[in-house]
Structure formats: structure tokens, C-alpha cells
Amino acid sequence: MVLIQLKINEPSDIGLELIPYNQFNKIRNIGKGHFVTVYSATWKHEVALVCFNDSHKFLNKVKESDNNFKIYGISQNPNQGDYILVLQSEYCTEYGKTYCKNCGGKYDHIDHTWCKQCLVTATSINSGNEKIDDLIEEMRLKINSHLNIIFEWIPYNQFNYIKEIGKGGFATVYSAIWKDGPLKYNVNEEMCTRVPNKKVALKCLNNSQNMIDEFFNEVRAYSINKIDDILNVYGISQNPNTKDYIIVIEYADGGSYNNWISINYKDFDWRNKIQTLLSIIEGLKGIHKKQKVHHDFHTGNILFLTKNLNNLNRKSLFISDMGLCEDVNNTSEVKTYGVIPYIAPEVLRRKPYTQAADIYSFGMIIDMQRN
Fold first, then answer.
1. Are strands 233-238 and 152-153 parallel, antiparallel or unpaired?
2. Which CATH number fits domain 130-250: 2.170.130.30, 3.40.50.720, 3.30.200.20, 3.30.428.10?
3. Which residues does 33 contact at the CB level (< 8 Å), separation at least 6?
4. What is the pLDDT of residues 166-183, one digit of tens each?
5. pTM for this one?
6. pLDDT in tens, 243-255
7. CATH for 3-106, options being 3.30.200.20, 3.30.300.30, 2.60.120.20, 3.90.226.10
């Protein structure tokens, strides 16, 4: 028996028998996806041959913790060069039902309509920085719906028409066109495609290459869930000249709450006011559920996706600027941030910033709406 060792980043390598391809007989096609083709065959007995045209998908399947089907070994097609995983023959019956037809992995979702593994491994992760790569993987592992954003490393040369739209003490924000655009999962095709020429915002953090922990914390505070009330994040980039890291986030065409109100104040009735307040408090509730404190909650950090009041809906506004967001247990250091009218009195008296201080800020937003 010939054993090969696959280096797959596990505590110990996994030994598998190498089975010569000419030992398989009566090979019959069962189905084909984008990355795998499945055959039934006779070896010492009936087996399933799962043929991968992508070595990364092959290794992911080998590493998969699912033990429903015994792995007899691996092989390789001498003509196509495809890597082959030799499994129990019963896999042929489950392929395309409980196992993804494209990657061969087990469906995570109960109704088998989407494959988490296909989303997590949609693109290779290669930023050139191990810590950044780990963060990208961490963000992808948060995926729990095919509607989630696939977080990725985005080369800076992907951005065109870069224009400064805002500047603060910690960062400069630009608008830009992302040429290839974000990945989107097509349920019917069970594969990811890109939405090209996507307008995005680039938040360039000053000196971020020397403040990597703070940069990571801000990235984690944004959302990959499109139904959240927190601004969505698409990925990370880096300015090749300054070396500063960039957070690529959703572009809010309507601008800040203050800007949006100045355009729509004449038609902004009580029904619309209540709707916007409900969206804001839902976003803040989401932050607090994660045991976080926003720390800088005011109308300048509430953004609208649309300029037009007629297009306003439940998902038209988002909470942004998560740079000062902290864990509730990490607010003992007394620092005063924010816009004075929205800062809670106890914070001005040098007391720790708590979730209650965020609620005070929200109360001031309500008060502003009365006018």
C-alpha cells in the first residue's frame, strides 16, 4: 500500500492510499458541477469518484470534518490531471441533494439551496500579510446566508475615479468605482459572479500599518449582512504609496443624516421621522447585542443610501464610523470623543463611556427630529 502525505494545515498530516487510476472499471458519470465531476466505478467494490479540477477545492474536501462517507484513498486522472477522492458509493446518491454539486462539500443550510464552503472559498486569500489573511478568513467564516457579502482582499488598482469626499482626524474617505465589483451568489447556478463597476467608499486610516489592532477592530465592527442596519463592508485594500490600509465599505449616496435632512426637510413628515428613528435604534440595538459600545453616536455617523425621500425604506440608512466601537468591558479608560451635544453628561464628567451613553446620544437625535 502506497501512502501519500497531504500538507493541509492540520495538527497532523492525513495519510491516504494512492490508488492507480487504471484500477477503476465500469466508470459511469453521475453529475457535473463547476469544480467537481462525480462518477460511480468498480474498484475492489463499488465506489464514488469525486474528481476535482481545482486543487484548493480538493484539499478543502479532504479536510472536511464530515465523516458520513468513508474515504478509501485518492487518485488522479492521467488525461485531465484532475485530483480524485475515492469515497463510499453511497455518495453518488447524495451528490446534488445534501452535497453541493459544485464543490462536493456538504450543504450547511437546511434547505440545501446554498453552500457555505463555496462562499468561504470563492476567491483565494493572498494579501501578502498573514494577519490580514487571517482577518479575511475570520470575516468569511461569519457567513450564514447566501445574501452575505464575501469579504475579500481588493488590489488598489481595482479602483477608478477616486475622489475625496470627507476628512477627519483619523481617516480620509474617498468615493471610487470598483472595476470588477463584489461577488454575488447565484442560487440557481450555485456559483458566485461579480457585479462590475460598483461605486464604493474607501476609508483610508491614517498610519494604519502601525495601528493594526485598531484597524482590525474597526473592520470587525462593520457588517457583511445586507439586512443589518450597520454599514456593510466589502473588504480591505492598501494604498501602495502611503502603505495605509483601506476599509472598502458601502457608498451612501444620500450622505450623512445632516446632509440628507437639508435636502428633504420640507417633505420629512412624522411618519418618515418615526421610520428613520426605528431604523437607527435597530442598528444601535445590533451593536449593543454584540456587547459593544459605539462611542461616537451622532447624526454625522448615520448615512443614507438614497438622496430621495420617495425612495426611503427600512433599509435606506445605516450606522457608520465604527472606528471607536469597543467591547463593553473595555471602556474603563476615560477618553471623551464625539460631538458635544450628543455626549452624555457622565462622559463629560470623565466617567466611562457605556451603552447607556449611546442611548443618551440616540435621545438627542430624537430631540433633533422634533424641530
1. parallel
2. 3.30.200.20
3. 100, 101, 102, 103, 104, 190
4. 887 678 999 999 999 999
5. 0.81
6. 889 999 999 988 8
7. 3.30.200.20
